[in-house]
């Protein structure tokens, strides 16, 4: 239903939506501060608890939690050198040395301002890029969506930690899980093994809760975190001259983070590391040497990982392809609230795009004010004993998985995938491709079969007749070939041969 822009703004600024954004941002900060908890895990738990809310209020809280958790992770990285989420890996490189010198407040203040700047830049990039991307997405047919699903899977498999083969196997397992249940085209039961509970498929939320909640508890058992070292917090709010001096670096790393976040399967952790690497190359005279407390070493990764949120939303809204594991869970939120991810979402429900921008801006403002004013209080949360924290997480996991359908079978699924997630992580298999596989599996399945029905025996010929399909095929092939050193060598030789042929042709022409 079309609404005026002012009506949408008033909807986003309604008191209950603003309150839920605030609660989500504060909850997200707590999730980010606590080592071992991740933004993905927090959203997975929250999605099930928002089932009874309206879709606007549900997304107000989820966007707030996502933004808040990425920011909150910098606290534990600075104070105890353990990032609350993977997206703050590089923040501790320079934040922790400052913390040990009694300048934790200065480091946290810089991280807070940089996070706010990154959030703002991500929103601007999202607003500029979303509709050109939508125009491209509307040109996609079943052939293109089938190939796009595999491109997203191979990209996240190649970038995930560990070998590409393990990432691809993990993603393939996700595809297999997505096939469980009644075939929507033939009505045949697939991989249910006679279980009535599996006839409707494996519910997405219990799977996410198990993979990111229960498996985290199992992995964390026996691990010990260091105690807070920085007893002195010091000054928190950075001076205006400091912010002005670092404004160009914030703008550059914010743009970099948005671009990286828009790549399917990359996520905030890659944006964080790339932002830090960019600062090391770009800044010739840092405030201190990098690795020993440089302001730039805190500002660059925090700006990049927060701006990556806006970038990750672009493929999620336009193509229905999650940018990372967090957006994959967020897509699950769209589905359980009755919205179909993909380009038609913005055609028929354009108001959700504007609401997401409003919620991101509100979350950024709340994060800035609340984050700077509660440094000393929230800093103590990062050292809550693990034996108190983990039982609470298990209880939340059980409640979250049961609440969706009030079914004990969903609780069993959550624990089964919790054990599976624990085993995969112990043997070096990344969970990101598994999540992406579960999301993209139905997209690949339905669009492949639809394409075959349309093209018949000319399926492969039809692929090469469509320009976008040819481009996606090349991206898919290059994504696979570029994952091994041997393949990279082959590509370099082919490129050298191509340049040689072109060069000879040019000389011959002259």
In short:
The protein has 510 residues and is an all-alpha fold. It has helices spanning 5-12, 15-33, 39-49, 55-80, 91-100, 104-137, 142-159, 164-178, 204-220, 240-262, 268-282, 296-319, 325-336, 343-348, 351-373, 375-379, 386-403, 408-426, 432-455, 459-465, 467-481, 485-509, and strands spanning 181-182, 189-190.
Describe this structure in words.
With 510 residues, the protein is mainly alpha-helical. The chain has one domain (5-450). The protein has 22 helices and two strands. It has a two-stranded antiparallel ribbon with strand order 1-2. A hairpin with a 6-residue loop joins strand 1 (181-182) and strand 2 (189-190). Helix 2 (15-33) packs parallel to helix 4, helix 3 packs across helix 17 (386-403) and helix 4 (55-80) packs antiparallel against helix 13 (325-336). It starts with a helix and ends with a helix. Residues 226-231 and 504-510 have low confidence and may be disordered.
Give short descriptive properties of this protein:
510 residues, 73% helix, 22 helices, two-stranded antiparallel sheet, mainly alpha, disordered C terminus
Q: Count of helices?
A: 22
**Strands across the major sheet, in which order?**
1-2
What is the string of helix and strand elements? HHHHHHHHEEHHHHHHHHHHHHHH
Largest sheet: 2 strands, antiparallel
Class per helix and strand makeup: mainly alpha
Proportion of strand residues: under 5%
Q: Compute the number of strand runs.
A: 2
User: Could you tell me the radius of gyration in angstroms?
Assistant: 23 Å
In helices, the fraction of residues equals over 70%
Cα distance spanning the termini: 63 Å
Overall domain count:
1
Uncertain parts? 226-231, 504-510
Overall average residue pLDDT: 76
Overall spatial form? globular
